[in-house]
Amino acid sequence: MSEYLIELNNIGKRFGGVRALDGVSLAIRPGEIHCLAGENGSGKSTIIKVISGIYTPEEGEIRIDGHPVGRLDPIKAVGHGIQVIYQDFSLFSNLTVAENLALNTYLLEGRRHMDWARAHRMAREVLSRLGVSIDPDAEVGSLATSGRQIVAIARAILAKARLIIMDEPTTALTRHEVDALFAITRDLQAQGIAVLFVSHKMREMLEISERLTVFRNGRKVAEGMMRDFDEAAITRAMTGLELTDEPYRPAPPTAPAVLETRGLGVPGAVEGVDLVLRPGEIVGISGLIGSGRTELARALFGMEPAMRGTILLNGAPVHPRSVQEAIALGIAYVPEDRLTEGLFLPQSIERNLTVSILDRLRRGLFLDRSALRQRTDAMFSAMQIAAPSAETPVGHLSGGNAQRVMLGRWLLTGARVLILNGPTVGVDVGSKATIHRIIRDLALREGLAVLMISDDVPELVTNCNRIHVMHRGRFVAELTGADMSETRINDTLKTLT
Amino acid sequence: MNKILQSTELAIACVLLLAMVLIGLVNPAFWGFDNLFSLAKSNVVIGIMALGVLLVMISGGIDVSFPAFAVAALYIVVRAMVALHYDGVFLPFVAAALIGLVLGAFNALIIERFRMIPLIVTLGTASITRGLLLGLLGSSIVNINKMPKELIAFGKHDLVTVEAANGATYGLTAMVLVYLGLGLAMHLMLRHTMIGRSVYAYGTDPEAARRAGFNTRRTIWFVYCTAGMLAGFAGMLHTSMIWQANPRDFQGLELDVIAAVVLGGASIFGGRGSVLGTLIGVFMLVMVKNSLILLKVDTTWQRVVVGLIIVAATAITAWRDRKKLA
User: Fold this and answer.
1) Is some CB atom of chain B closer than 8 A to the CB atom of A113?
2) What is the tens place of the pLDDT at every residue in A24-52?
3) Topology, domain B2-325
4) What residues of chain B lie within 8 A of the CB of A141, using their CB?
5) CA distance B190 to B203
6) Can you give the residue ranges of the ABC transporter domain (chain A) (predicted)?
7) Using alpha carbons only, what angle is made at residue A329 by residues A324 and A330, rounded to the nearest 5 degrees?
8) What is the C-alpha separation between A129 and A141, in angstroms, rounded?
């Protein structure tokens, strides 16, 4: 018996002229929780595909249980007990939980007949083994993200997994769901199943993993026991930079509020919210999904027609009834899912940046091309968007750069109030730091008032000068100055549920 | 899924019953045996084609080529029978189904190999098939006097006959058994075989289906070949039931059949649909068209009604599926 379940030695993989993997090694022990960290483009996804047999590396050797396996293909990999849970879970939303769980096994066994009774038995068995109560007859599409993830894990277990690879498993989960996932992960470990987390969320990695491997630019730059690392060390390894997290503590703002709400409510979601935003402030909102935080943002942006209460903008009551009205009032909103809610992916950076101000760049019936170009160029460089030119389609950009395009668009509208919902979801550490710096600069130098909604508690603590904790549609706590610490917020959130 | 599908089907069945009661109130002749038997007869050909379209729609595609395939199959077979003085039933049906299968395989080839959009592919193959048929075989109609006798006799089989007060007899065609038999086979295939489940899986998410280990290429071939085969078979049944082979037949039928399938609860996004729902949908569409005739509504206006049905039914199912996705 070998010490390692799987060993990858000096793996090299090229795509055209690009070296995606440059002699990397990775070894996973049976039943260990291992974390693979790296920024976008570091080769994380490529190595997953090598392990799961989708890509064949040009160099290097793969050993499973100490024996070289030669060329791996997806079916062989599954046969060796390797299961990948992709971010989209690859589940069939129209089919029931039981069928989703049974299909892979049936396919593996080469069955032609769909045995529903056995599918139910299998589903009930594996779900109870995971200690969760999910109805095997429920349609997968009707489950929450966390539920779908559990189904995906259950499916991997049914496929007799010995190694489950989870690609960014915590991205769409709330803190409670992450805790539940970690509990399940430890259960898997107790059953001798190894788990490889692929993630760039350092805090979570530190919490759950025993060993760590860090990739950067297709090379392995660090590995070792998790206890030998701290957050700063991992960040340094991932980015190659020293990123400091100086908290945002501006002088107490004295200017009158730019935005104020009194008794703001959205039926069924938000109740009696009093909020004050001054120029230069970054105010955080922490709360679980369903706490009403998104509805609050949408109400301010004119997207909740049933809104009650008063919104004061520079002291004057306003009532934005539509997005157009909100934009005209100088309110900007960067939604949670920037990819689906905001950007036109196949279109150029220029078009994406200027889409909200085209009305103002008109000359008669036509667009003023030179003005358009001027505005674009200014914002392109101000936002430090990493792209060959402003003609590049936004779909080609990394998450962080796409987010900067979104921010740039709103700044072009001349917004005075910026509402950010999960500003760095799905963004790697390096980009995250740049985005934070840009947001702080905007607040500090331009006097923008920023409302930041985030699941990422450390993000709020570092970047906000005030934080409201929201629960069941109400502000239940306000933290400022020295009170603002992660433990304080996490404790507050815990007592609420 | 079971529960939801059943509730969808229940809803469609309720609408159907309500419509039947209303139509019966307006026109008591609706409940006469002659009318009900003629309704059942009209279900057969459209219904068999609908089973094929159902399969294609569950796989996330759409098929507008089946009327062309059906007409090609029936006309080629009947012309060959006339030319060879062949009179029989079994072989002609097998031949027609095979012609449909080959044409369907052509759809599958283009859709699978070139990753083309099914709507465009089937529009193209429909046009090619109809054009070739008229160009190579001519456009003369084979009438009852030339039609093979055995074929006509086969189409005349009745299950039961009822004598009306005035002495006329009405029969319920035995072809409904063929239709229901095919429906049952399709249901069992979709629900209880892995190839059937692969159609649902592929229609839900092709990429996930590949990752799960389904042979999705085989699924596409299976779907379009089966749809073509059913079309060819339905065409042959049609010709033996109307005692005529017209190379210009089934003009505009694709819309009726797609309307019926959508009415039966199949999703235009793929991954959803059932045989039971489709049977009900077909019945409802045929009944509505039949009632319009009974009410002496002009045929041009019937097109309007079919169009409205397709738009309304698609909107409702799309709304249902969107709500699920959200």
Assistant:
1) yes
2) 999 999 999 999 988 777 888 889 989 98
3) ABC transporter involved in vitamin B12 uptake, BtuC (1.10.3470)
4) 324-325
5) 13
6) 6-242, 241-497
7) 100
8) 22
Half-sphere exposure in the Cβ direction for A228 (13 Å, CA): 8
Nearest-angstrom CA–CA distance, A154 and B36: 51
Tell me how close the Cα of A100 comes to any Cα of chain B, in angstroms.
9
Give the pair of three-digit tokens for residue B43.
Answer: 């279900």
Average pLDDT over chain A, rounded to an integer: 86
**For residue B95, how far is the Cα from the chain centroid?**
19
Residue A293 CA, chain-centre distance (Å), reads 17
- Residue in this structure with the two tokens 């260990």, named with its chain if needed: A32
Q: Chain B interface residues facing chain A, Cβ-Cβ under 8 Å?
A: 1-4, 191-197, 200-201, 203-205, 207-209, 211-214, 267, 271-272, 324-325
Report yes or no: A104 at the B interface, CB cutoff 8 Å. Answer: yes
Please indicate whether, in this complex, the C-beta atoms of A95 and B1 are within 8 angstroms of each other: yes
User: Which among B207, B213, B267 has the least Cβ separation from residue A107?
Assistant: B213
pLDDT of residue A412: 85
ipTM of the complex: 0.84
B155 burial type by CB count under 10 A (0-12 exposed, 13-18 middle, 19+ buried): buried
Q: How far is residue A209 from each of residues A106, A201, A202, A227, B312, measured CA to CA in Å?
A: 33, 12, 10, 9, 54
pLDDT of residue A245: 66
Domain boundaries, chain B: 2-325
Q: Which chain A residues are closer than 8 Å to B2 by Cβ? A: 96, 137
Q: What is the DSSP string of B114-147?
A: S---HHHHHHHHHHHHHHHHHHHH-S--B-TTTS
**Of all helices (H) and strands (E), which one includes residue B311?**
helix B299-325
- The CA-based diameter of chain B, rounded to the nearest angstrom, is 66
The answer to whether A69 and A76 have CB atoms below 8 angstroms apart is yes
Report the CATH superfamily, name and number, of domain A6-239. Answer: P-loop containing nucleotide triphosphate hydrolases (3.40.50.300)
**Residues in chain A within 8 Å Cβ distance of B200:** 92, 94-95
A431 has pLDDT over 80: no
- The percent of residues in chain A predicted with pLDDT above 90, rounded, is 29
Contacts of B196 in chain A (CB under 8 A): 114
Cross-chain CB nearest to B194 (options A92, A94, A106): A106
A142 at interface of B, judged by CB pairs closer than 8 A: yes
B123-175 per-position pLDDT tens digit: 999 999 999 999 999 889 999 888 999 999 998 888 888 887 777 888 889 99
pLDDT at A337: 62
B144 CB contacts (<8 Å, ≥6 apart)? Answer: B152, B243, B244
The answer to whether residues A258 and A229 touch, using CB atoms and an 8 Å cutoff, is: no
pLDDT, tens digit (0-9, with 9 covering 90-100), for B170-209: 888 999 999 999 999 999 999 999 999 999 999 999 988 9
The Cα-based distances of A479 to A484, A489, B142, B166, B290 in angstroms read: 5, 8, 88, 92, 72
**Number of alpha carbons in the 13 Å side-chain half-sphere of residue B306:** 23
CATH class of domain segment(s) A259-495? alpha beta
Contact B213 A112 (CB under 8 A): no
For residue B174 the two structure tokens come to 């035995």
Nearest by CB to B1, which of A78, A96, A106?
A: A96
Provide CB contacts within 8 A for A340, sequence distance 6+. none
Q: How would you classify the pairing of strands A82-85 and A163-167?
A: parallel
Segments making up each domain of chain A, as ranges: 6-239, 259-495
**What's the CA gap between A147 and A152, in Å, rounded?**
9
CA distances from A30 to A2, A4, A160 (A): 10, 6, 14
Question: Apex CA A353: angle with CA A351 and CA A359, to 5°?
Answer: 75
Put simply, the answer to whether A94 touches B325 (Cβ < 8 Å) is: no
Of A108, A112, A139, the CB nearest to B4: A139
